[in-house]
Specification:
- The chain is mainly α.
- It has one domain.
- The chain is about 70% helix and about 0% strand.
- The protein contains 9 helices and no strands.
- The chain is globular.
Length: about 180
C-alpha cells in the first residue's frame, strides 16, 4: 500500500527512496523468522555482490536500519557499476540473500566472506563507502566504529592506508560549522 501511495507522488527519486525503504522493511520482516535464502554453501560472491555486502553490513552492524541509511545505501550503490544497471527485482533478490546471511551468521561473517573477493583498489573504495554510510545519520555508534576497525584490520592495504581513508571520511563528515 505504501508503494502505491509513493507512485502517486510523481517524483521518481522520491518513489525509488520510498520503495527501497518499504522493500528493506519487508525483507527484514521476512527474514526475522526465515533465513532460507542465504547464499548456498560453497558458493562465493562476485566482487559486485561483495561490495553490496559490505555496504549493507555497514548500515546493519548496529542492529537497525532507518530510512536515511536505506536511502544512503541505495545512493552509494546506484552510482556504481554494476548496480546502476540492475533492475529493482535483481537488487531486491541480492539484498534478500545478504540480509538472510546477516540474520544467520552476523554482519562479521558477511564482511569476512566479502573482503577476499575485492581487489586492493575495490577494498579501499569499499572501506571509504562503509565509513560514509555509517556517518550518513551523523552519529557513529560503538558498533559502527567497531565494524570499521574490524574491516580496516582485515584489508591487505599498505601500512596506514586504511587509517588514512577513515581519517579523511571523518573530516568530510564532521559538521565543522556547527556551534561548539
Amino acid at each position: 500500500m505504501e508503494q502505491k501511495i509513493a507512485k502517486q507522488v510523481g517524483d521518481s527519486g522520491l518513489i525509488h527512496e520510498l520503495e527501497l525503504a518499504v522493500h528493506v522493511k519487508e525483507t527484514v520482516a521476512r527474514f526475522t523468522s526465515n533465513a532460507a535464502m542465504a547464499f548456498p554453501c560453497g558458493w562465493s560472491m562476485t566482487p559486485g555482490e561483495a561490495f553490496a555486502a559490505i555496504a549493507l553490513a555497514a548500515i546493519a552492524c548496529d542492529g537497525s536500519m532507518d530510512r536515511q541509511e536505506a536511502v544512503a545505501l541505495r545512493g552509494q550503490l546506484n552510482k556504481r557499476t554494476p548496480f546502476r544497471d540492475l533492475s529493482d527485482d535483481s537488487m531486491g533478490s541480492l539484498f534478500d540473500r545478504l540480509i538472510a546471511q546477516i540474520r544467520d551468521q552476523g554482519w562479521e561473517s558477511l564482511i569476512n566472506e566479502a573482503l577476499p573477493q575485492l581487489t586492493l583498489s575495490q577494498q579501499e573504495t569499499a572501506l571509504a563507502m562503509a565509513a560514509m554510510l555509517v556517518h550518513c545519520d551523523r552519529v557513529v555508534d560503538p558498533a559502527e566504529d567497531a565494524m570499521l576497525r574490524l574491516m580496516a584490520s582485515q584489508l591487505k592495504l599498505p601500512e596506514g592506508r586504511a587509517a588514512q581513508i577513515l581519517d579523511v571520511i571523518n573530516v568530510l563528515s564532521r559538521d565543522s560549522l556547527a556551534s561548539n
